[in-house]
Amino acid sequence: MRRLLRRAPLVGVVIPAWGVEDYLDDCVRSLLAQTHRRWEAVIVDDGATDRTGEVADDWARRDNRISVVHSVNGGLGAARNLGTSHVRGDYLAFLDSDDVLPPTAYADLVGALEESGSDFATGSIVRWEGDALVEPPWMRRLHRPLRGARVEDRPEILGDVFAWNKVWRRSAWDGAGLAWPEGVRYEDQPTTTRAFLGQRFDVLDEVVYRWRIREGSITQTRAASVRDLADRWETKRMSLAAVRAHGSAEVEEVFVDRVLAGDLWRYFLLVPGCTPEWWRLLRSGVLELWGQRSLVHSGLPPVHRLAGWLVEQDRRTEVASLMEWVATLEGPAPRVQDVQTGAWRLSVPHAVLDETTVAPEALALRDHEV
Protein backbone atom coordinates (compact mmCIF):
# COMPACT_ATOMS: atom_id res chain seq x y z
CA MET A 1 0.00 0.00 0.00
CA ARG A 2 2.87 2.38 0.84
CA ARG A 3 4.32 1.85 -2.63
CA LEU A 4 0.97 2.53 -4.26
CA LEU A 5 0.55 5.79 -2.34
CA ARG A 6 4.07 7.04 -3.01
CA ARG A 7 4.16 10.04 -5.31
CA ALA A 8 5.62 9.55 -8.75
CA PRO A 9 9.18 10.90 -9.01
CA LEU A 10 9.61 14.42 -10.35
CA VAL A 11 11.43 14.81 -13.67
CA GLY A 12 13.11 18.16 -14.29
CA VAL A 13 13.28 18.92 -18.02
CA VAL A 14 15.66 21.49 -19.52
CA ILE A 15 14.63 22.88 -22.91
CA PRO A 16 17.21 25.22 -24.53
CA ALA A 17 15.55 27.33 -27.22
CA TRP A 18 16.91 29.55 -29.97
CA GLY A 19 15.27 30.35 -33.30
CA VAL A 20 12.50 27.79 -32.88
CA GLU A 21 9.32 29.84 -33.07
CA ASP A 22 7.94 27.35 -35.62
CA TYR A 23 8.81 24.24 -33.59
CA LEU A 24 8.54 25.02 -29.88
CA ASP A 25 4.77 24.45 -29.72
CA ASP A 26 5.08 20.88 -30.98
CA CYS A 27 7.94 20.24 -28.57
CA VAL A 28 6.00 21.43 -25.52
CA ARG A 29 2.84 19.61 -26.61
CA SER A 30 4.81 16.37 -26.67
CA LEU A 31 5.89 17.07 -23.09
CA LEU A 32 2.30 17.74 -22.04
CA ALA A 33 1.29 14.42 -23.61
CA GLN A 34 3.71 12.36 -21.48
CA THR A 35 2.12 9.48 -19.62
CA HIS A 36 4.53 10.30 -16.78
CA ARG A 37 2.68 13.38 -15.58
CA ARG A 38 4.91 14.59 -12.76
CA TRP A 39 7.49 16.85 -14.34
CA GLU A 40 8.51 20.48 -14.41
CA ALA A 41 10.32 22.18 -17.26
CA VAL A 42 12.40 25.28 -17.76
CA ILE A 43 12.66 26.75 -21.24
CA VAL A 44 15.89 28.70 -21.65
CA ASP A 45 15.43 31.45 -24.23
CA ASP A 46 19.04 31.64 -25.39
CA GLY A 47 18.89 35.20 -26.73
CA ALA A 48 16.54 34.29 -29.57
CA THR A 49 15.86 37.07 -32.07
CA ASP A 50 12.57 35.64 -33.35
CA ARG A 51 9.38 34.94 -31.37
CA THR A 52 10.84 32.00 -29.47
CA GLY A 53 10.82 33.85 -26.15
CA GLU A 54 7.20 34.96 -26.60
CA VAL A 55 6.07 31.41 -27.42
CA ALA A 56 7.88 30.16 -24.32
CA ASP A 57 6.28 32.81 -22.10
CA ASP A 58 2.85 31.91 -23.44
CA TRP A 59 3.34 28.28 -22.42
CA ALA A 60 4.49 29.34 -18.95
CA ARG A 61 1.25 31.30 -18.51
CA ARG A 62 -0.80 28.27 -19.58
CA ASP A 63 0.88 25.60 -17.44
CA ASN A 64 2.44 26.24 -14.04
CA ARG A 65 4.84 23.34 -14.50
CA ILE A 66 6.68 25.41 -17.13
CA SER A 67 8.96 28.36 -16.39
CA VAL A 68 11.14 30.46 -18.67
CA VAL A 69 14.61 31.92 -18.28
CA HIS A 70 15.59 34.64 -20.75
CA SER A 71 19.34 34.85 -21.31
CA VAL A 72 21.90 36.40 -23.62
CA ASN A 73 23.01 34.02 -26.35
CA GLY A 74 25.61 31.64 -24.99
CA GLY A 75 25.14 28.54 -27.10
CA LEU A 76 23.57 25.18 -26.43
CA GLY A 77 25.94 24.02 -23.69
CA ALA A 78 25.56 27.23 -21.71
CA ALA A 79 21.76 27.17 -22.09
CA ARG A 80 21.58 23.59 -20.83
CA ASN A 81 23.79 24.38 -17.84
CA LEU A 82 21.73 27.45 -17.01
CA GLY A 83 18.52 25.45 -17.22
CA THR A 84 19.96 22.72 -15.00
CA SER A 85 20.58 25.28 -12.26
CA HIS A 86 16.92 26.39 -12.41
CA VAL A 87 15.10 23.07 -12.55
CA ARG A 88 14.26 20.73 -9.65
CA GLY A 89 13.53 17.05 -9.66
CA ASP A 90 14.47 13.52 -8.69
CA TYR A 91 15.49 13.02 -12.32
CA LEU A 92 16.96 15.28 -14.99
CA ALA A 93 16.29 15.28 -18.73
CA PHE A 94 17.26 17.47 -21.67
CA LEU A 95 14.88 18.13 -24.56
CA ASP A 96 15.87 20.08 -27.68
CA SER A 97 13.20 22.58 -28.63
CA ASP A 98 12.79 21.50 -32.26
CA ASP A 99 12.25 17.82 -31.40
CA VAL A 100 9.40 15.86 -29.82
CA LEU A 101 8.95 13.01 -27.36
CA PRO A 102 6.88 9.85 -27.85
CA PRO A 103 4.15 9.76 -25.16
CA THR A 104 5.78 7.06 -23.02
CA ALA A 105 9.38 8.35 -23.22
CA TYR A 106 9.80 9.47 -19.62
CA ALA A 107 7.63 6.70 -18.24
CA ASP A 108 9.89 4.14 -19.92
CA LEU A 109 13.17 5.76 -18.83
CA VAL A 110 12.13 6.60 -15.28
CA GLY A 111 10.45 3.23 -14.87
CA ALA A 112 13.69 1.45 -15.72
CA LEU A 113 15.65 3.58 -13.26
CA GLU A 114 13.15 3.07 -10.47
CA GLU A 115 13.57 -0.69 -10.86
CA SER A 116 17.34 -0.83 -11.44
CA GLY A 117 18.70 1.95 -9.25
CA SER A 118 21.10 2.91 -12.05
CA ASP A 119 22.47 6.44 -12.49
CA PHE A 120 20.91 7.09 -15.88
CA ALA A 121 18.98 5.40 -18.65
CA THR A 122 19.16 5.75 -22.43
CA GLY A 123 16.73 4.70 -25.15
CA SER A 124 16.68 4.53 -28.91
CA ILE A 125 15.62 7.30 -31.29
CA VAL A 126 13.91 7.83 -34.59
CA ARG A 127 14.54 10.72 -36.96
CA TRP A 128 12.48 12.29 -39.67
CA GLU A 129 13.49 11.29 -43.19
CA GLY A 130 10.98 13.15 -45.32
CA ASP A 131 7.60 12.36 -43.76
CA ALA A 132 8.74 9.04 -42.27
CA LEU A 133 10.21 8.34 -38.84
CA VAL A 134 13.18 5.99 -39.20
CA GLU A 135 15.21 4.28 -36.46
CA PRO A 136 18.89 4.33 -37.53
CA PRO A 137 20.18 0.73 -37.68
CA TRP A 138 23.20 1.60 -35.55
CA MET A 139 20.94 2.95 -32.80
CA ARG A 140 18.87 -0.23 -32.88
CA ARG A 141 22.07 -2.26 -32.60
CA LEU A 142 23.40 -0.25 -29.65
CA HIS A 143 20.11 -0.38 -27.72
CA ARG A 144 19.75 -4.06 -27.03
CA PRO A 145 18.39 -4.05 -23.46
CA LEU A 146 20.76 -3.91 -20.48
CA ARG A 147 20.21 -3.01 -16.84
CA GLY A 148 22.77 -1.77 -14.33
CA ALA A 149 25.50 -1.88 -16.97
CA ARG A 150 29.06 -0.60 -17.00
CA VAL A 151 30.82 0.60 -20.13
CA GLU A 152 32.88 -2.61 -20.26
CA ASP A 153 29.63 -4.53 -20.83
CA ARG A 154 29.07 -2.75 -24.14
CA PRO A 155 31.87 -0.31 -25.11
CA GLU A 156 30.10 0.55 -28.37
CA ILE A 157 27.43 2.36 -26.33
CA LEU A 158 29.84 5.29 -26.27
CA GLY A 159 28.55 5.93 -29.79
CA ASP A 160 25.23 6.99 -28.24
CA VAL A 161 26.43 10.56 -27.83
CA PHE A 162 23.10 12.37 -27.53
CA ALA A 163 21.98 14.39 -24.51
CA TRP A 164 18.27 14.12 -25.15
CA ASN A 165 17.47 10.39 -25.26
CA LYS A 166 18.53 9.97 -21.64
CA VAL A 167 17.25 10.59 -18.14
CA TRP A 168 19.68 11.00 -15.24
CA ARG A 169 19.08 10.50 -11.55
CA ARG A 170 19.63 14.08 -10.36
CA SER A 171 21.81 13.01 -7.44
CA ALA A 172 24.04 11.06 -9.84
CA TRP A 173 24.34 14.01 -12.24
CA ASP A 174 25.32 16.39 -9.44
CA GLY A 175 27.52 13.84 -7.67
CA ALA A 176 29.59 13.25 -10.80
CA GLY A 177 29.93 16.99 -11.44
CA LEU A 178 28.52 16.62 -14.93
CA ALA A 179 27.97 19.69 -17.12
CA TRP A 180 27.95 20.52 -20.81
CA PRO A 181 31.01 22.17 -22.42
CA GLU A 182 30.40 25.81 -23.29
CA GLY A 183 31.63 27.84 -26.23
CA VAL A 184 32.05 24.81 -28.47
CA ARG A 185 29.73 22.85 -30.76
CA TYR A 186 29.25 19.06 -30.56
CA GLU A 187 29.01 19.50 -26.80
CA ASP A 188 27.03 16.29 -26.24
CA GLN A 189 29.85 13.79 -26.69
CA PRO A 190 32.30 14.77 -23.92
CA THR A 191 29.58 14.75 -21.27
CA THR A 192 27.81 11.57 -22.35
CA THR A 193 31.23 9.87 -22.63
CA ARG A 194 32.05 10.81 -19.03
CA ALA A 195 28.66 9.52 -17.90
CA PHE A 196 29.04 6.14 -19.60
CA LEU A 197 32.59 5.75 -18.27
CA GLY A 198 31.82 6.61 -14.67
CA GLN A 199 28.23 5.56 -14.00
CA ARG A 200 25.88 2.61 -14.10
CA PHE A 201 23.27 2.83 -16.81
CA ASP A 202 20.23 1.13 -18.28
CA VAL A 203 19.82 0.59 -22.01
CA LEU A 204 16.28 0.43 -23.39
CA ASP A 205 15.22 -0.77 -26.80
CA GLU A 206 12.14 1.46 -26.69
CA VAL A 207 12.18 4.57 -28.89
CA VAL A 208 12.19 7.56 -26.52
CA TYR A 209 12.94 10.46 -28.87
CA ARG A 210 11.97 11.85 -32.26
CA TRP A 211 14.81 13.87 -33.78
CA ARG A 212 14.20 16.57 -36.33
CA ILE A 213 17.25 17.42 -38.45
CA ARG A 214 16.50 20.78 -40.01
CA GLU A 215 18.39 23.25 -42.12
CA GLY A 216 19.87 26.04 -40.02
CA SER A 217 19.87 24.08 -36.74
CA ILE A 218 23.04 23.75 -34.67
CA THR A 219 23.53 20.17 -35.84
CA GLN A 220 23.34 21.30 -39.46
CA THR A 221 25.98 24.03 -39.21
CA ARG A 222 28.17 23.81 -42.28
CA ALA A 223 30.83 21.22 -41.56
CA ALA A 224 32.95 22.84 -44.27
CA SER A 225 33.77 25.76 -41.95
CA VAL A 226 37.11 25.78 -40.17
CA ARG A 227 35.46 26.69 -36.87
CA ASP A 228 33.05 23.77 -37.10
CA LEU A 229 35.85 21.31 -37.78
CA ALA A 230 37.98 22.80 -34.99
CA ASP A 231 35.08 22.33 -32.56
CA ARG A 232 34.64 18.75 -33.72
CA TRP A 233 38.29 17.95 -33.10
CA GLU A 234 38.15 19.62 -29.68
CA THR A 235 35.17 17.58 -28.47
CA LYS A 236 36.72 14.38 -29.85
CA ARG A 237 39.94 15.27 -28.02
CA MET A 238 38.05 15.83 -24.76
CA SER A 239 36.18 12.56 -25.13
CA LEU A 240 39.32 10.56 -25.94
CA ALA A 241 41.10 12.02 -22.92
CA ALA A 242 38.27 10.81 -20.69
CA VAL A 243 38.41 7.32 -22.22
CA ARG A 244 42.18 7.10 -21.74
CA ALA A 245 41.86 8.25 -18.14
CA HIS A 246 39.35 5.42 -17.60
CA GLY A 247 42.20 2.99 -18.16
CA SER A 248 40.63 0.14 -20.14
CA ALA A 249 42.58 -0.85 -23.26
CA GLU A 250 39.56 -2.69 -24.66
CA VAL A 251 37.23 0.26 -24.21
CA GLU A 252 39.80 2.62 -25.73
CA GLU A 253 40.28 0.44 -28.81
CA VAL A 254 36.54 0.20 -29.44
CA PHE A 255 36.14 3.93 -28.85
CA VAL A 256 38.95 4.97 -31.21
CA ASP A 257 38.05 2.56 -34.01
CA ARG A 258 34.26 2.45 -33.92
CA VAL A 259 33.07 5.57 -32.11
CA LEU A 260 35.59 8.37 -32.55
CA ALA A 261 35.98 7.61 -36.27
CA GLY A 262 32.30 7.05 -36.90
CA ASP A 263 31.40 10.42 -38.45
CA LEU A 264 34.60 11.11 -40.38
CA TRP A 265 33.04 10.07 -43.67
CA ARG A 266 30.96 13.27 -43.55
CA TYR A 267 34.15 15.31 -43.56
CA PHE A 268 35.85 13.27 -46.28
CA LEU A 269 32.89 14.05 -48.54
CA LEU A 270 33.74 17.74 -48.19
CA VAL A 271 37.34 17.45 -49.41
CA PRO A 272 36.47 18.30 -53.04
CA GLY A 273 36.43 22.08 -53.09
CA CYS A 274 37.69 22.56 -49.52
CA THR A 275 40.08 25.37 -48.65
CA PRO A 276 43.79 24.68 -47.95
CA GLU A 277 43.25 25.79 -44.33
CA TRP A 278 40.37 23.33 -43.87
CA TRP A 279 42.41 20.51 -45.42
CA ARG A 280 45.35 21.19 -43.11
CA LEU A 281 43.05 21.14 -40.11
CA LEU A 282 41.38 17.91 -41.27
CA ARG A 283 44.73 16.18 -41.70
CA SER A 284 46.20 17.46 -38.44
CA GLY A 285 43.20 16.12 -36.52
CA VAL A 286 43.36 12.74 -38.24
CA LEU A 287 47.08 12.45 -37.47
CA GLU A 288 46.62 13.54 -33.87
CA LEU A 289 43.82 11.11 -33.10
CA TRP A 290 44.66 8.14 -35.34
CA GLY A 291 48.29 8.69 -36.34
CA GLN A 292 49.62 5.84 -34.21
CA ARG A 293 46.97 3.35 -35.29
CA SER A 294 45.71 4.53 -38.72
CA LEU A 295 42.13 4.68 -39.91
CA VAL A 296 42.63 1.47 -41.89
CA HIS A 297 41.78 -0.32 -38.63
CA SER A 298 38.63 1.70 -38.01
CA GLY A 299 35.00 0.74 -38.38
CA LEU A 300 34.51 3.08 -41.31
CA PRO A 301 33.17 1.66 -44.59
CA PRO A 302 35.93 0.44 -46.95
CA VAL A 303 36.00 3.50 -49.23
CA HIS A 304 36.23 5.83 -46.25
CA ARG A 305 39.00 3.77 -44.64
CA LEU A 306 40.88 4.28 -47.90
CA ALA A 307 40.08 7.99 -47.83
CA GLY A 308 41.36 8.17 -44.27
CA TRP A 309 44.63 6.53 -45.26
CA LEU A 310 45.02 9.02 -48.12
CA VAL A 311 44.38 11.90 -45.69
CA GLU A 312 47.12 10.52 -43.44
CA GLN A 313 49.46 10.51 -46.45
CA ASP A 314 48.55 14.14 -47.38
CA ARG A 315 47.13 13.08 -50.76
CA ARG A 316 44.40 15.66 -51.02
CA THR A 317 43.88 15.50 -54.78
CA GLU A 318 43.33 11.75 -54.66
CA VAL A 319 40.90 12.01 -51.72
CA ALA A 320 38.90 14.52 -53.76
CA SER A 321 38.93 12.26 -56.83
CA LEU A 322 37.90 9.26 -54.73
CA MET A 323 34.98 11.11 -53.15
CA GLU A 324 33.82 12.46 -56.52
CA TRP A 325 33.96 8.95 -57.98
CA VAL A 326 32.06 7.44 -55.04
CA ALA A 327 29.32 10.05 -55.51
CA THR A 328 28.66 8.61 -59.00
CA LEU A 329 28.15 5.04 -57.79
CA GLU A 330 24.66 3.62 -57.35
CA GLY A 331 25.81 0.92 -54.94
CA PRO A 332 28.92 -0.26 -53.09
CA ALA A 333 32.32 0.36 -54.64
CA PRO A 334 33.55 -2.46 -56.93
CA ARG A 335 35.45 -5.36 -55.36
CA VAL A 336 38.04 -7.70 -56.82
CA GLN A 337 39.50 -10.98 -55.56
CA ASP A 338 43.19 -11.84 -55.66
CA VAL A 339 43.46 -15.09 -57.62
CA GLN A 340 46.48 -16.28 -55.64
CA THR A 341 45.48 -15.46 -52.07
CA GLY A 342 41.71 -15.36 -52.41
CA ALA A 343 41.65 -12.05 -50.52
CA TRP A 344 39.17 -9.37 -51.54
CA ARG A 345 39.95 -5.68 -51.92
CA LEU A 346 38.47 -2.50 -53.33
CA SER A 347 38.82 -1.95 -57.06
CA VAL A 348 39.32 1.73 -57.87
CA PRO A 349 39.74 2.96 -61.48
CA HIS A 350 43.30 3.98 -62.33
CA ALA A 351 42.02 7.40 -63.41
CA VAL A 352 40.85 7.95 -59.83
CA LEU A 353 43.76 6.38 -57.95
CA ASP A 354 46.89 4.44 -58.79
CA GLU A 355 46.39 1.41 -56.57
CA THR A 356 50.05 0.41 -56.85
CA THR A 357 50.89 3.44 -54.67
CA VAL A 358 48.48 2.42 -51.90
CA ALA A 359 49.23 0.20 -48.90
CA PRO A 360 47.40 -3.15 -49.29
CA GLU A 361 45.71 -2.75 -45.89
CA ALA A 362 44.07 0.48 -47.10
CA LEU A 363 42.32 -1.43 -49.89
CA ALA A 364 41.58 -4.64 -48.00
CA LEU A 365 38.03 -5.80 -47.32
CA ARG A 366 36.88 -7.66 -44.22
CA ASP A 367 34.94 -10.92 -44.39
CA HIS A 368 31.57 -9.27 -43.69
CA GLU A 369 32.20 -6.67 -46.42
CA VAL A 370 32.58 -9.14 -49.28
Structure description:
- This is Glycosyltransferase family 2 protein.
- With 370 residues, this protein is α/β, with parallel strands linked by helices.
- It folds into 2 domains: 2-220, Alpha-Beta Complex (Spore Coat Polysaccharide Biosynthesis Protein SpsA, Chain A), CATH 3.90.550; 261-369, no CATH class.
- The protein has helices at 2-5, 24-32, 52-62, 76-86, 105-116, 137-142, 170-175, 188-198, 226-246, 249-260, 264-268, 276-290, 302-312, 316-326, 360-363, and strands spanning 11-17, 39-46, 66-71, 91-94, 120-129, 132-134, 146-149, 166-169, 201-211, 335-337, 344-346.
Number of domains: 2
Number of helices: 15
Number of strands: 11
H/E element order: HEHEHEHEHEEHEEHHEHHHHHHEEH
CATH topology of the largest domain: Spore Coat Polysaccharide Biosynthesis Protein SpsA, Chain A
Calculate the terminal CA-CA distance, rounded to whole Å: 60 Å
Cα radius of gyration in angstroms: 22 Å
Query: Which shape, going by the Cα principal axes?
Result: globular
Which blocks of ≥5 consecutive residues have pLDDT under 50?
216-221
The biggest beta sheet reads: 9 strands, mixed
CATH architecture of the largest domain: Alpha-Beta Complex
What's the rounded overall pLDDT mean? 95
InterPro entries: Glyco_trans_2-like, Nucleotide-diphossugar_trans
Domain Glycosyltransferase 2-like: 13-138
Keywords: Transferase
GO molecular function, one term: hexosyltransferase activity
Supply database-style keywords.
Spore Coat Polysaccharide Biosynthesis Protein SpsA, Chain A; alpha/beta; 370 residues; 9-stranded mixed β-sheet; 11 strands; two-stranded antiparallel sheet; globular
